[in-house]
Amino acid sequence: MKIAFVGGGNMASALIGGLLHKGYAAGDISVVEVEPTARERLLARFGVLSHAAPGAEIAGSDVTLLAVKPQQLRAVAEGLRPLLESQLVVTIAAGIRTADLSRWLGGYARIVRVMPNTPALVLAGVSALYARPSVTPEERRMAEGILGAVGSTLWVEREELMDAVTAVSGSGPAYVFYFIEALEQAGRELGLTPAQARRLSLDTFFGAARLALESGDDPTTLRMRVTSKGGTTERALRSMEDRGLKPLIVDAVRQAAERSRELGDELGRG
User: Fold this and answer.
1) Between 263 and which of 72, 95, 117, 142 could a Cys-Cys bridge form, CB atoms 3.0 to 4.6 Å apart?
2) How many CA atoms does the CB half-sphere of 99 hold within 13 Å?
3) How large is the angle between the packed helices 219-226 and 194-215, nearest 10 degrees?
4) Which of 109, 75, 59 has the alpha carbon at shortest distance from 89?
5) Are 91 and 69 in contact (CB under 8 A)?
6) 3-state DSSP assignment of residue 88
7) Which residues, 6 or more positions from 127, have their beta carbon under 8 angstroms from its beta carbon?
8) Whole-structure pTM value
9) Are 51 and 42 in contact (CB under 8 A)?
10) Mind listing the pLDDT tens digit for each residue in 87-116?
């Protein structure tokens, strides 16, 4: 399978690295990247060829993966129109709906939209995928295989759910980092060194997430097991509940989903 990336930034680099780690040949991967320094970096790091403008590498690809900023996608898509024949187009540009991308591509419909997240940079991401009806089962497997190189994947069958995905997992790492910041601050204020506070906070998050993944129990059950009656955990959680922390988090995620819908409207105009 030949894959042509359009855009060679962080997420494209993560995917390329993951694909090579999975055994893909560097010769089957090409990149269109306008920045000369980025092209040099891609060659030095991965041994993949990159080009300043789209051409034969797009026309000869099985999958063309669009990894540019959402604001750049319309211009990029319009430049790709004459090069597309039967390739699968995969887009990781946040917020851009497939109907708008299809229109910019002159009605081309073999499109899969993906929302990855930044832990893909360490091969620990999660990506949600949505395929337009004209995408074949084999093409769905191709898209899933590419994103599976940097973490887990799941499919949604209604595109509007991508706004929820964006709010939960796309923005989600920032919520986790925010909570880690708070844990670190509390640790420092209680007398731990910055290094101790960071180590305890990071390893606790990592361990708790791993336990939740591997135990098979739901988070409520796991939380209750840690919460002894009259103990320290119970007092901490009661303080959070008294301040309405959980509803606040739920509302924040809803706000992110609403902003995702708004951005889809704004970016898809024209």
Assistant:
1) 95
2) 8
3) 130
4) 109
5) no
6) strand
7) 114, 115, 116, 117, 120, 147, 150, 151, 152, 153, 154
8) 0.93
9) no
10) 999 999 999 999 999 999 999 999 999 999
